[in-house]
Amino acid sequence: MRNRAKILLIDDDRNTLFTFGVALKSADYEVVSCSDAADGLNLVETESYDLLIVDNMMPVFSGIELIQRARLLGIKQPAILMSASPVQMFGSASVPEMTVHIEPKPITPERLRAIVQQSLGGLEALISQ
Fold first, then answer.
1. Angle subtended by helix axes 14-26 and 109-120, to nearest 10
2. Strand ranges inside the chain, DSSP E
3. What pLDDT score was predicted for residue 121?
4. 69 CB contacts (<8 Å, ≥6 apart)?
5. What pLDDT, on a 0 to 100 scale, did the predictor assign at position 12?
6. Distance of alpha carbon 84 from its chain centroid, rounded?
7. Who's near 54: CB < 8 A, 6+ residues apart?
8. If one looks up domain 6-128 in CATH, what number appears?
9. Residues 75-103, buried b or exposed e (16+ Cβ, 10 A)?
10. What ranges do the domains of the chain cover?
């Protein structure tokens, strides 16, 4: 049994991947990262994650589409959707089920850790048992 939450971080900006990866690892999360939605979808199909953190604006297809495709495959892990675009552009019909948080960019590492902790909720207690 794992003793910490496993997070998949998907963003096409390498600086964001590095900064957020360091921030989450320093909070003792296991972090796997990739830089495009297609690779992210392949990872969620082959590995199990406790939480997905997904940028919306990426090449190949969007973060919303990635989460929708994952849901069609039966993958139900909660997701945090990040976007530099105004959050108001997301109608409730376009936001996939189990998206626990939509966060506008830029996001500080401290804010990201707080959102992750809140999104994982009681799951962290179960993992550590």
1. 60
2. 6-10, 30-34, 51-55, 79-83, 99-104
3. 82
4. 41, 61
5. 94
6. 15
7. 10, 11, 37, 40, 63, 66, 67, 79, 80, 81, 82
8. 3.40.50.2300
9. bebbbbbbbeeeeeebeeeebbeebbeee
10. 6-128
Q: What is the token pair recorded at 111?
A: 């804010």
Q: pLDDT of the chain along its 129 residues, tens only?
A: 455 899 999 999 999 999 999 999 999 999 999 999 999 999 999 999 999 999 998 988 889 899 989 989 998 889 999 988 765 445 544 555 556 678 888 899 999 999 999 888 855 433 443
For residue 108 the two structure tokens come to 């500080």
Closest CA to 128 of 29, 47, 60: 29
| Sole residue written with tokens 């992210």 | 40
Both tokens assigned to 112:
């990201």
Token pair, residue 53, equals: 């953190």
